[in-house]
Amino acid sequence: MNVFPNLIGGQWLEGGSVNPNINPSNLDDVIGQYAQADAAQAHSAIAAARAAFPAWALSGIQQRFDILDKAGSEILARKEELGALLSREEGKTLPEGIGEVARAGQIFKFFAGEVLRLSGDKLPSVRPGIDVEVTREPVGVIGLITPWNFPIAIPAWKIAPALAYGNCVVFKPAELVPGSAWALADILHRAGVPAGVFNLVMGRGSVVGDVMVRHRDVSAISFTGSVGTGRAIAALAAERLAKVQLEMGGKNPLVVLDDADLSVAVNCAVQGAYFSTGQRCTASSRFIVTSGIHDRFVQGVKERLAALKVDDALLEGTDIGPVVDASQLDQDLRYIEIGKSEDAELVFGGELLQRRTRGHFLSPALFTGATAGMRISREEIFGPVASVQRVADYEEALAVANDTEFGLSSGVVTTSLKHASHFKRHAQAGMVMVNAPTAGVDYHVPFGGRKGSSLGPREQGRYAAEFYTTVKTTYIAA
Ligand code: NAP
């Protein structure tokens, strides 16, 4: 089997070792062997990016537009094929995989447009005879470190703005999903990104990622992943005063009020908590439900879950694919045991399932009787596991929703304008959803959270410029 190499300084290079890419729906299916860079190759990639930066920073906007637009067009044209690869390596269903690839293509198109819309301000000075200009310039070499759960969309929403604003990139994808990352690197290479401007270094986080975070020639790090890794990266970046952007975990609440439309509530709950196997940072994992609708809501969710098909991600009709790997599955099962030991009641699922192929199949799990202090109510599980907390009224629901160290996405289902408006204002989260699932966002508006979920400027849309550029103020005396 051929080895898919890394892209360093415009050259496709094999590494010291290889990493097999295994299909979580079928553990006997090895998708490919992917090069594993070592620390020396990570240093080479950073040196190549540093060398390419002066020319790329001053490159013409037509060149940058053309490259990003071409990459976006190819991604969109190949969305079925790339979606199948993504679903095969990550385990989300084929429609979800195709949808994610299409999203990546749209993101490249959006940032191609942003290249042409680069602007600044020209202002009068408070001092006579002087003009002031405020402009944005690229930051330098950006290290991009991404998680496994969105193998192409998250890389796209970091790589596209980084390149659009004139930065060079060293990209380290998660080890579990090198296939989509390699396909994206191949597309960018063929779209005409100059040598060294974009580098792919597949390899271990503790080796390649660590070099990127510590290296003084990496001016900024954009990281998406777990809180523990994010904290360690922030501490190292702070030591050398590197710019840092972290998107981390969530424990997102969905508040359901007595006046909710039950079918909307059930739909938001099931989509938000269980689709993509619950492996989304924006997944709802806490349903906070007022007493008057509690029993009907639980019954409705159980009925919907019973009708969902958990199976091979690539099979037609599958609603929920497998858990991504054995260690995530262990974590999900461990939390299901923790929930039981905390005296929450497991009223649906949480069982290992046998299917035609050997895969990590888990039935969606629903707990009731959870309370705010339980670990299943406080810690991110990152699987198809959610719990219901019964509350007396809206005021208690809001307080419980905000009682978390995280603050990514927060939802409410209600027909009351008063409660919707109040929740919108008082939910302590970066994104608020009214009568919509906590997961599911647009690409042209900011994405990110508060509290322990995020650090630094927002990602996506025009707000991406905050991280990927640095502002210069120029005074010109006439
Ligand atoms: P993770 O274990 O923290 O890994 C994320 C990335 O960091 C991977 O590429 C990993 O490489 C790398 N890494 C690991 N150790 C490192 C180190 N010492 N230095 C530098 N890089 C290092 O997270 P994950 O399990 O892949 O992803 C799941 C988490 O991501 C969840 O907590 C989820 O909530 C979060 N997430 C957040 C968002 C958001 O926008 N807020 C979106 C999606 C996911 P290896 O693969 O080689 O370990």
TrEMBL record:
UniProt xrefs under InterPro entries: Ald_DH/histidinol_DH, Ald_DH_C, Ald_DH_CS_CYS, Ald_DH_CS_GLU, Ald_DH_N, Aldehyde_DH_dom
Enzyme kind, highest EC tier: oxidoreductase
Record: active site: E247
Domain (Aldehyde dehydrogenase) ranges: 19-473
EC annotation from Swiss-Prot or TrEMBL: 1.2.1.3
This protein's UniProt keywords: Oxidoreductase
Cited Gene3D superfamilies: Aldehyde Dehydrogenase, Chain A, domain 1, Aldehyde Dehydrogenase, Chain A, domain 2
GO molecular function: aldehyde dehydrogenase (NAD+) activity
CDD domains, alphabetized: ALDH_KGSADH-YcbD (cd07097)
PANTHER family found in the cross-reference section: ALDEHYDE DEHYDROGENASE-RELATED
Protein name: Aldehyde dehydrogenase (NAD+)
Taxonomic lineage from the root: Bacteria, Pseudomonadati, Pseudomonadota, Betaproteobacteria, Burkholderiales
